[in-house]
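Run log, item B.
One chain of 68 residues. Sequence copied directly from the ordering sheet:
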Amino acid sequence: MLKYLTLIAVVYFFYWLIKQKIRNRKLEAQGIVVEQKGMRPITLMSIVMVVMYGGYMIYFLIFETHPS
């Protein structure tokens, strides 16, 4: 299940990234300067992936290694 959620997240990330690039190029063609603020998108995605897999690892260690 986690691999499908990861795949969906990666596909949506690239869709969003391409949409942003196209939007920024259209604005630059109109003469509007777009300034990058905050974290880069790939940094944000890597943080989300680390948290997601870290959470899964903790869940697995707590609930799957100790049979009830």
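Observations after the first pass:
- The chain has one domain: 2-64.
- The two ends are 23 Å apart (CA to CA).
Flagged for discussion on Thursday.
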